Amino acid sequence: MSKVTGWTRPVRVSALAVTLMLSAGSMAADWETVNEGKARTDINTYDKAMKDSPVKAFRGVTEVQAPVLSVLAVMADSSACADWLYQCQSLELRDNDQAYIRFKGIWPAKDRDALIQTQTTQNEETGAITLASHAVDGEPEHEGYVRVAALEDQFVLTPLDNGWTRIEFETFIDPGGNVSSVANVISHKAPQETLQGLREMAS
For the structural domain made of 2-202, what CATH number should be given? Predict the structure, then answer.
């Protein structure tokens, strides 16, 4: 694996923008199918239980008729976060490959926020680009927002023949506060709506 250059800074900080990035150990296996489509453009969704957490991780996979660079261009535009990333309210770039993201709350949850750091790598053999993000410390508290307890997101963009791209999105977010127990209800739409929004913006 090698680090991506050129797009590196804007894409890294927007990956979660997105989220919304999974550590390889915690998110690698044991996915259960939630919805499986038949066409290549359908969005297949999965979930899995996470150790020591009542909150599940969610995964979505689809193929879009757009090249990888078109998908990256959408993800690199921090001002477009709310147009495709599930529940994204805003995204502000910070130094050191970090970004401050705000999420719209769904009743009974209040609005959430997080400081995320994203690493971008590319598989030299397949050309697949992975953008893995996680929440970090360093952002002061903001009035009206509750800091998420945990957040990991990952996008994998794999170039296919004839200008198509396979997009895999995995996300785990514990909103913290007193709504962690209902986080699964709030977050289960994340893969479907995120990938649908990304497809519409990139195509």
Answer: 3.30.530.20
